[in-house]
Amino acid sequence: xxxxxxxxxxxxxxxxxxxxxxxxxxxxxxxxxxxxxxxxxxxxxxxxxxxxxxxxxxxxxxxxxxxxxxxxxxxxxxxxxxxxxxxxxxxxxxxxxxxxxxxxxxxxxxxxxxxxxxxxxxxxxxxxxxxxxxxxxxxxxxxxxxxxxxxxxxxxxxxxxxxxxxxxxxxxxxxxxxxxxxxxxxxxxxxxxxxxxxxxxxxxxxxxxxxxxxxxxxxxxxxxxxxxxxxxxxxxxxxxxxxxxxxxxxxxxxxxxxxxxxxxxxxxxx
Length: 270
Fold this sequence. Notes:
Elements: H1 4-18, E1 23-28, E2 51-55, E3 58-62, E4 67-71, E5 77-82, E6 91-97, E7 101-106, E8 113-117, H2 141-148, H3 155-159, H4 170-180, H5 193-212, E9 253-257, E10 260-264
Antiparallel strand pairs: 1-6, 2-3, 3-4, 4-8, 5-7, 6-7, 9-10
Helix pairs in contact: 1-5, 2-5, 4-5
């Protein structure tokens, strides 16, 4: 599914076509997404999009009247297209602008979301309890060290908990742990502050690299302009089970943690 780098890439891709533009009309072809698309979304018609921002994996289209909250789900994508372009089977929602462009949500599995709120979107029930952004100053090693004490959960599952830190999904958790030299099996509560410092640094580096490469294309993700993400070419362990480690030539192993696949080098990560 699209993770933080893919969503941030999408935000950067659509912003020039959406921010500061006036919405002409809304088309809801399929309201049955992860949650029903509310009729109140039509209130966005006639409004100018003042800002396009991101919180975790949610995109926020803010206007004077309210805010649209979008999530790409498992396989969704947002593209800026000519409003006259015919819709395809899984094109569920269009936000059409007076410029003649449209922001189109394509979501084959329908696990995405398009919601509307008049209130502060950061206080919405889906966003209010989320942890800090991993690329912000609010995400730092002493914080993780403090809240991890006595936690028996594995470090991989710990950093994938959105209440701990947002946006560190399965791919980037595996890659960050490899860069930091930490086994995904290590108990979060037994990690030293020094190891958390290495991990926080690795998470930030990996996410920045992924954003620069436009994200990772493994199945369905494409950027706003339809191009794939290229970070997949830099993956060191994820989805490389049985292949040689690029550092030590040991074989990459695959285990299951919390019903998710984890990939790691048993020699480089301890």
